[in-house]
Amino acid sequence: MPLNSVNTNVGAMVALQSLNRTGEELSATQKRISTGFRVADAKDDGAAFAVAERIRGAVAATTSANEQLGGVKGLLDVSNAALENVSTTLQKLQAVTVKLADGTITAEQRGQYQSQIGELAKNIKSFITDASYNGLNILNDPATVAIQVVTNGTGTYYNFNGYKALTNIYNSVSAASSWTRGDASSALTSTGAVGKAITNTLTQLNNFGSYSNYIDSQINYNKSILDAQQSGLGALIDTDMAKESARLQALQIRQQLGTQALGIANQAPQSLTSLFR
Q1: Which of 148, 177, 185, 201 has the least C-beta neighbours within 10 A?
Q2: Going by C-beta distance under 8 Å and a sequence separation of 6 or more, which residues neighbour residue 267?
């Protein structure tokens, strides 16, 4: 091919190809800077994008599981608060029952103590029936006492039981307002109404406390998993902004030089006109 041709400008073709490549690289760099991602879509790196999408799904699932665990924690906290109030009230009820068991009190005093103990029993029932969280009460003799809680994004479950507190605690002392001296004496034994109610309350407080500790531990563990997932995702697809900034400046200079080189190459054929003067 002739070196001096007005039909084919090799220099311009080379300069244009170089300028186009620089433009493509510049466009890719600007995309990485504007999105913050080295891999923003499948066109950037199909394999890395596929892995990133899977990790994003895992992050969403773990986040959702932790949100649900937060609700369970609230439910257990409310139930524990109710049982703690029941326990405190049972202590007061026990003290009044001791007075009822005393044979030296008058009939009027007995009536007053029976009235007091009846109100305390009503308080116990109220604490139990009011222990609702998000419409769920696991103390108010639930029809289904088995609770199944999702603990992570892979669908693993933790199971614990609700508690029939009306049956096992309140019913023991529900008739306390009519207790005689003999009833009061029997109620104070370890297997009596008050002793049984106190034992059941403390046992369930221990159980719910264990459930709550597990939920707290699982929430913290999930947070650690989320941190690791986010860190791995960032290492896979995030842009090194300092590196891209330096590259952007270099490409902008290359683009300017390429434009100038193309301009010079386009002017080369014009020098051939001097041959015909």
Answers
A1: 148
A2: none
Which amino acid makes up residue 237?
A: I
Two tokens, residue 168: 């096992």
Sequence length of the chain is 277
For the chain, what is the total number of helices (H) and then of strands (E)?
A: 8, 2
- What DSSP letter does each residue of 132-174 carry, written as one string? -BTTB-SSB--S--EEEEE-STT--EEEEE--BHIIIIIHHHT
* Model pTM score: 0.76
The distance of Cα 266 from the centroid of its chain, to the nearest Å, equals 63
φ/ψ of 192, rounded to 5, equals -80, 180
pLDDT tens digits for 25-65?
777 788 778 778 888 888 878 898 899 999 999 999 999 99
